[in-house]
Amino acid sequence: MPDGGRTGKAGQGRRTALRYWLLQVPGTVLLVVVLLLVHRWLGLPWWAVAAITVGWTIKDALLYPFLKHAFDPTAGDQPHSPVGRFAVAREGLGQDGDSRTGYVQLGGELWQAELAAGAGPVAPGARVRVVGQQGLSLTVEPVAASGAGADEAAGS
């Protein structure tokens, strides 16, 4: 690309901003309707209706830098993916006929997890490697107690 890929990133930023502002429209319309009803029934001055509406829009503009990541459809892509990271099983997975699902701790968060197809059982407190993610559920496999996997797990 002659522009070094900047067009895609700028276009994505514009789409994120457009998404944010379009999602603010229903709230702003509702505010205006309520203010018009208050004006009609209680005599709220026009300048107050306009000032509150402008203040509401300024509030949205001031919050945008803090909220834009939540409106960015690419924010959940690979850079923060848990796949390949190591976690600790908080309960046994697939032991003694138990369920192949349970919870693992990844960093400071508890995640629902399921054993990968063909993976052996995992004891509580054992290290596991995240091999997949579907929504808020992880697919994990046990990490060998010795060898390179144990060294990597100790560093996570």
Describe this structure in words.
The protein has 156 residues and is of the alpha+beta class. The chain folds into two domains: 6-71, no CATH class; 81-154, OB fold (Dihydrolipoamide Acetyltransferase, E2P) (Beta Barrel), CATH 2.40.50. The chain contains three helices and five strands. It has helices at residues 6-42, 46-67, 148-154; strands at 86-89, 101-106, 109-115, 127-134, 137-142. It has a five-stranded mixed barrel with strand order 1-2-3-5-4. A hairpin with a 2-residue loop joins β2 and β3 (109-115). It is elongated. The model is unreliable at 1-7 and 147-156 (pLDDT under 50).
Index terms:
156 residues, alpha+beta, OB fold (Dihydrolipoamide Acetyltransferase, E2P), 2 domains, five-stranded mixed beta barrel, 3 helices, elongated, disordered N terminus
